[in-house]
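Margin note: ligand = iron/sulfur cluster.
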Amino acid sequence: MPIGTNVEGKMAAALRRLGFDKVFDTNMGADLTIVEEANELVQRIKNGGTLPMITSCSPGWVKFAELYYPDLLGHLSTCKSPQQMAGAVFKTFYAEKNGIDPKDIFSVSIMPCTAKKFECGRDDQSASGYPDVDVALTTRELSRMIMRAGLKFTALPDEDFDDPLGDDTGAAVIFGATGGVMEAACRTANAWLNGANEPLELKAVRGTAGIKETTVVVGGQELKLCVASGISNAKIVMDKLRAGNPEGWGFIEIMCCPGGCVNGGGQPIQPQYIRDTVDLKAVRAKALYDQDAAMTLRMSHESKAMKMLYSEWFDGYGGPKAHHALHTSYVAREKFKK
Ligand code: SF4
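Resulting structure:
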């Protein structure tokens, strides 16, 4: 299939044929991450909290920060990643609503990422008392499982994700591209603080450049934004922050992989002759932005799943129940040890 083809419907079909009882969309976890992160940003701006706030959804980046910038960990958002938030919701909200003991749920995430395997074993990632996510498989591993099972992927029908957590927004979709998390969080912050009804289009932070900057006005205040992808670029940004933040950034997005998760270490490996001629990061990101542009709901707080979760389960954005299930903490690590 052409690079950049949206195969989520076939992936849901394949997972059911591999034996999974329920197949949910991690985009729901991305919407949840955005509303919690946008709320955290708004609170930090209003209450004089630590700024710039830095995104925390890339476990490769988080571990790099724990190893090399332990003095700056207070800048990281305390939000768990979409993988972990989704897992926490399955074993708390979904388990209780469906009368299932969370110990009987085995939750497997499909990710473009090898660092997600490490993330699901981190401390402080077990809202129900059991690990939020039991196993993370890469998209590359899933493709091998599909082939081993003898499924003809291209012939599978497109199937929907399971409800009630199968709903998502364009903001969640663009999470996979560098700049997407920043744009998604600013859409919701802009709606909450500036009363905007239309999604903010942050074109200055799209594209595959290693470091991108722009400025937005949020709540009557100018907010300087910086987006970095790839660890060498993360180092440039963090060294500037350690030197006193001369650029005056207020919000920073950092992704470990160059180009973001579309170019994650767990993605299918393309042969050299394709990598020489196709900009995989750009083609895959374009597929996400095209999908976002075609969606009716493009701001995370508008999602039906978010409205249901916050009316039936969580006690408000960043409330005690949400904080327990959806937020985490970081540790200064000794270099070259686990
Ligand atoms: S940027 Fe890379 S390490 Fe970070 S979550 Fe995405 S795939 Fe994983």
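Strands lie at 53-54, 108-111, 135-138, 211-218, 221-229, 249-255.
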